[in-house]
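step 3/5: co-fold with magnesium ion
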Amino acid sequence: MNELLKVEGLSVTFGGLKALNDVYIELHKNEVLGLIGPNGAGKTTLFNAISGLVPPSTGKFSLEGKNSPWPKTHQLAKLGIARTLQGVGLFSGLTALENVMVGAEAHASKGFFADLFGTSGKSEAKLKARAHKALAWAGATAFADKLPSQLTYPDSKRVALARALVLEPKILLLDEPAAGLGHDEIEKLANLILQLKEFYSIIVVEHNVEFVNKISDRVYVLNFGEVISSGPFEKVREDPAVVAAYLGIGN
Ligand SMILES: Nc1ncnc2c1ncn2[C@@H]1O[C@H](COP(=O)(O)OP(=O)(O)OP(=O)(O)O)[C@@H](O)[C@H]1O
Ligand SMILES: [Mg+2]
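step 4/5: write tokens
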């Protein structure tokens, strides 16, 4: 079985609101999984739960077929999970390169990054080289010395992606990577994600269904915190439950 990550029976409650209810998802190796659903469906909450940012009220988590305690934020890099945030979320006082280095450094004192980078000045140079590599992967080399305020929105999103890639994760969680991008940039991003698939397994939350269709091997559809459909995009888009959920927007 090539199943990399599995979440079962996940429920998250905020006060009286059930943001997620008995959610099941599995991500296979070298797969791009699309996660779609109307606003407020619980997509970001699912990422937050997997990232240890919100505690589940119930839920089982397994990696590579092994049950594991529900992950805590500080364990993510070690577990091989990295995410980008809905929006951008860069540190405004740091250059793009420094933002990416900080992304890696936060975990440099623990786990495999400690081995990789050690603590010497030499390791600083290695860290810098790795950050440059991540910027290159994300198509953001030209912005290394720029501050976030000097970058266009699409370019800052590339830097945010580099900050996740620098962790060399197995699993990438991308929250609305195409939001705010123009047609050509979305096309480029889709191609980049398809390239990244060779090395990573990726879950993408996205509203742009054309983009989701292009990049995803399978999709899950969330509505009011529940998975209402899953499978190949072409099949899911015709599922009456999905059609009804999308027609329900604004009612
Ligand atoms: N920290 C929180 N405290 C209270 N309620 C929250 C919190 N985070 C999310 N919610 C609520 O949980 C529900 C799911 O929100 P979530 O942000 O996961 O939706 P989403 O599918 O990502 O939506 P969007 O497409 O608009 O980003 C919403 O009703 C939201 O208001
Ligand atoms: Mg969201």
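step 5/5: annotate
The two ends are 42 Å apart (CA to CA).
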